């Protein structure tokens, strides 16, 4: 092994470097943390570099959790309060209000895109399929959690019925609620999950909450539960499920409404 | 390799500022490199973490957050009073007015309701999604650095030689506490007992606990390690522990800075940048000082 010695010259230059670096860092702290603001917007170079870690995080979670590892389930005793609603809790859309006025008798879930047999399912048809009930903890990206009992149709059964084409990679959820407005019109909530999560045993199209029909504030008539991810990955007020092979035609191209606003596509942490 | 250089006095002549001081090679390149990677990572993780906290500035005990019942142990918020909006911080039900810093802050006339102030968060404006990107990027750097450091320190002997507690450490703990209280510092090759406790505490307790409680908050990791939250007392308790450990790390940082200033910032900084550290000259009676190299 070669001896490790620092030449005085190197030492000085390194010292100078670190001194100026630490001065720079303290300057940043003094001027406030807005120093980073202009580099962290969606599409900025530094942001893109840091987002590379999201991919690593996703791969690590997939590697460890695999396809079928189950999210923890709880007991009836753990249900101590109503499920806290978040995001849109009363859609102001005419179409939605019309469906609600008729107790969703005219509502259908369309299953389309890369499938052999497109479907149009009524709530009764979904409820007549085998169901799964699970008491799980809902974790919001904001940091809070709430435990509730969800009842619904496993998404995998619906996918099997529609016969997914081999080139399909993601399930896209189309919703009835307007989450945002843009120059080109209202933006209805949308999001995607991959087929691994779509076929996960706990991924259900929920129509029941704590033993009662799903209330409006929690996504009536139908919302998805993706128990190994955060709340923003579980769209409410579903109207259509579309099988897609990429994000090109999904909103801004990042795979979901919140994703287009800078959130990670895989909400597993 | 580096231990060879340590016993070689050759470089001393180039860098020793005075004849009676003894310059020793104290910190290996692995220790120095990982130290600065942690410093950078913790800086960004703290400021992005405070931004993440701002999205839900309450901490709870248990599996979930109580909305219909009260399991809140800590909260930062704002409220309207007769004299205008005030910021408050509530710890275990006890409320403190923290206007200007916590709960209600901003430039004069443009104050807003936000838990941690703009200058303490990345980005400075409210942006949970971006804070998460920054937080998880540096989480990888921090954890990887911890593993690299652990392996390097096992191989190069740093762990065994410098950090492992010995019987002597316990014996000299009282003396050590008195010395620190008097700001009397011994510059030796070895860490003193309080240093060992502080560094060992950060590296083997606080940082691992930070990583474990961070993973316990992940719904996907909950499916891999379902026992984690049972062990910690639930996801919301894990989040509370995560926050408390953050506060302890900030406390460590402040004490670390004060100790460096008190013990001689040039010498301390040189050792963590170049590795070379000036130890106390031998005692007058010719014997090496009590804890001298």
UniProtKB/TrEMBL annotation, chain A:
Entry-linked InterPro entries: OxRdtase_Mopterin-bd_dom (IPR000572), OxRdtase_Mopterin-bd_sf (IPR036374)
Domain of life of the organism encoding this protein: Bacteria
Xref: Gene3D superfamilies: Oxidoreductase, molybdopterin-binding domain (3.90.420.10)
Oxidoreductase molybdopterin-binding domain ranges (all copies): 103-245
UniProt protein name: Molybdopterin oxidoreductase
Lineage of origin: Bacteria, Pseudomonadati, Pseudomonadota, Alphaproteobacteria, Hyphomicrobiales
From TrEMBL, chain B:
The UniProt record lists the keyword Transmembrane: yes
Annotated protein name in UniProt: Cytochrome b561 bacterial/Ni-hydrogenase domain-containing protein
Entry GO terms, CC: plasma membrane
Record-linked InterPro entries: Cyt_b561_bac/Ni-Hgenase, Di-haem_cyt_TM, Hydrogenase_cytochrome
Chief location bin: membrane
Keywords recorded for this protein, A-Z: Cell membrane, Membrane, Transmembrane, Transmembrane helix
SUPFAM superfamilies tied to this protein: Transmembrane di-heme cytochromes (SSF81342)
Keyword Cell membrane: yes
Pfam families associated with the record: Ni_hydr_CYTB (PF01292)
Membrane protein topology class: Multi-pass membrane protein
GO terms of biological process kind: respiratory electron transport chain
TM ranges: 36-53, 133-155, 197-221, 241-263
Domain Cytochrome b561 bacterial/Ni-hydrogenase: residue ranges: 183-275
Upper taxonomic lineage: Bacteria, Pseudomonadati, Pseudomonadota, Alphaproteobacteria, Hyphomicrobiales
Subcellular location: Cell membrane
GO MF terms held by the record: electron transfer activity; heme binding
């Amino acid at each position: 092994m070669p001896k490790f010695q620092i030449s005085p010259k190197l030492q000085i230059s390194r010292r100078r470097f670190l001194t100026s670096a630490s001065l720079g860092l303290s300057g940043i702290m003094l001027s406030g943390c807005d120093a980073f603001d202009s580099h962290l917007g969606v599409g900025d170079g530094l942001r893109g570099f840091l987002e590379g870690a999201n991919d690593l995080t996703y791969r690590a979670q997939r590697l460890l959790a695999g396809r079928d590892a189950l999210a923890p389930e709880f007991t009836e005793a753990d249900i101590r309060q109503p499920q806290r609603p978040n995001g849109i809790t009363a859609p102001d859309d005419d179409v939605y209000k019309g469906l609600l006025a008729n107790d969703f008798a005219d509502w259908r879930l369309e299953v389309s895109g890369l499938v052999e047999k497109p479907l149009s399912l009524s709530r009764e048809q979904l409820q007549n399929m085998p169901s799964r009930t699970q008491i799980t903890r809902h974790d919001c990206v904001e940091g809070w959690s709430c435990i509730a009992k969800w009842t619904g149709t496993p998404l995998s059964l619906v996918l099997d019925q529609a016969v997914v084409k081999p080139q399909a990679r993601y399930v896209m959820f189309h919703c009835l609620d307007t989450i945002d407005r843009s120059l080109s019109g209202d933006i209805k909530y949308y999001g995607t999950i991959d087929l691994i999560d779509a076929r996960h045993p706990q991924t259900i199209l929920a129509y029941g909450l704590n033993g009662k029909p799903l209330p409006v504030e929690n996504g009536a008539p139908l919302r998805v539960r993706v128990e190994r991810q955060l709340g923003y990955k579980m769209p409410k007020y579903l109207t259509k499920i579309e099988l897609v092979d990429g994000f090109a035609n999904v909103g801004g191209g990042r795979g979901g409404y919140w994703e287009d606003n800078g959130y990670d596509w895989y909400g597993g942490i | 390799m580096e231990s060879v250089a340590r016993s070689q006095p050759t470089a001393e002549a180039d860098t020793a500022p005075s004849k009676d001081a003894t310059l020793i090679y104290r910190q290996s390149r692995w220790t120095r490199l990982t130290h600065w990677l942690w410093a950078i990572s913790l800086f960004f993780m703290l400021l992005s973490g405070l931004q993440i906290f701002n999205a839900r500035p309450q901490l709870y005990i248990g599996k979930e957050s109580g909305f219909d019942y009260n399991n809140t142990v800590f909260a930062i918020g704002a409220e309207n009073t007769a004299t205008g909006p005030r910021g408050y911080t509530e710890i275990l039900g006890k409320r403190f007015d923290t206007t200007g810093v916590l709960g209600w802050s901003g430039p004069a006339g443009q104050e807003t309701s936000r838990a941690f102030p703009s200058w303490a968060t990345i980005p400075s404006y409210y942006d949970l999604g971006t804070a998460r990107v920054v937080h998880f990027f540096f989480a990888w750097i921090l954890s990887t650095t911890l593993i690299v450091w652990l392996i390097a320190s096992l191989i190069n002997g740093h762990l065994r030689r410098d950090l492992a507690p010995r019987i002597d450490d316990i014996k000299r703990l009282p003396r050590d506490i008195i010395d620190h209280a008097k700001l009397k510092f011994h510059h030796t090759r070895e860490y003193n007992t309080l240093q060992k406790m502080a560094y060992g505490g950060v590296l083997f307790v606080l940082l691992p606990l930070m990583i474990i409680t961070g993973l316990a908050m992940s719904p996907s990791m909950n499916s891999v390690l379902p026992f984690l939250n049972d062990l910690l007392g639930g996801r919301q308790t894990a989040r509370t522990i995560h926050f408390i450990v953050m506060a302890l790390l900030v406390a460590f940082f402040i004490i670390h800075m004060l100790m460096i200033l008190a013990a001689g910032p040039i010498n301390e900084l040189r050792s963590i940048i170049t590795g070379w550290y000036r130890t106390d000259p031998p005692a007058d009676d010719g014997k090496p000082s009590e804890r001298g190299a």
